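Methods, example record. To illustrate the input and output format used throughout this study, we show the complete record for Class I SAM-dependent methyltransferase. The sequence lines were provided to the predictor; the line carrying structure tokens was produced by it.
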Amino acid sequence: MLGYYSSLSSEVYDLDKPVGSSFGDIEYYTERLATCTGSILEPAAGTGRLLVPLLEQGFQVDGFDVSGDMLAICRDNCEKRGFAPALFEAKMESFSLDKKYGAIVIPTGTFLLLHEREESLEALRNFHHHLADGGKLIVDLFLPSELELGKLSVRKWETANGDVITVESQIVEVDPIKQYRVSQARYEKWRNGRLMQTELERYPLRWYGVEEFRMILEHIGFEDITVSADFQYGQYPTRAGQTMTFEATANKKG
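The corresponding predicted structure is encoded as:
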């Protein structure tokens, strides 16, 4: 099985979505977390695009990621700004900590990388377990707009030292019944016309209907569930392509 977010793809992520770059989500999350008491946990913290701005706003944030390469960049981005948060390698469905959080946040649809139904359910149960009473789960989802098999997409980036990284990606599998697609991407780093490094990676992506995901959260035990579209709090989604942000509370007393 091919992995994802190895060395080259992590470097591309940091180039394409550097610390502080926002889709409207950093401002939204900062506002929604303003009343949060206790620490915040960001699963799939990546290179620190959101984590670092939250630290700069004075929040106490821990983070983890399944990719050691992403975490290495995240640590470096934090250290450059004088921060040393707790960062560790783990999976959303199986991490285990002796700590309860005031909020758990998963932006940009990263939760959808858990394309197997049972592992996604286990991750939600794990989030609920690690939230303090009254703690908030905030997670972004979206409906994929592209499901055409074999259509090739090509992008490139230039690094600070003049290297060029190219990425060719295409969808190789679509399962509309199980609600997921799988993309395959080939990363290549070039220097002065010579190929220096290459990676082949696999990216699964699951999708959910709006009310389907609400019912899943309720089944897990979450309450006070709010759905928002494109970072407009309480505005219900009306079309495909919108970011759908779910906010839910772990009420554990009573």
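Annotations derived from this record:
The mean pLDDT is 95.
Residues 153-206 form a domain with the N-terminal domain of TfIIb fold (CATH 2.20.25).
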